[in-house]
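Risk register update: the risk of archive-format incompatibility is retired. Evidence:
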Amino acid sequence: MVEWLAKISVDEAANTIEALGLLLRNPHTEHWTYTTHKDSIRAILEAALDCGIPEASVKAEATIGYLASIGESEYLNLTRPISETIH
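Archived output:
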C-alpha cells in the first residue's frame, strides 16, 4: 500500500499524506511497514511538503515528528527551518 501511495503522491499529496499518517499510527500496523518502505514514505512526505497545500504540509511535518518519536529520525532533514514552516 505504501508503494502505491508513493506512486500517486505528486497528484494526490493531501490524500496520500492523510492515508500514510493513519496507516503509521494504526496500532495494527507492523514495524516492517515503515522500515522497509523508506523511499516510498520519503516520496509521500516530500510531495506533501512541496504541494503548496498548507494542511498537507502540516500533516507531513506531524508525520515526520511521529516517525522521529518512534525512532525513525531519517526524515527530519525534510523539515524546514521554523521561519519557513507553515503555521
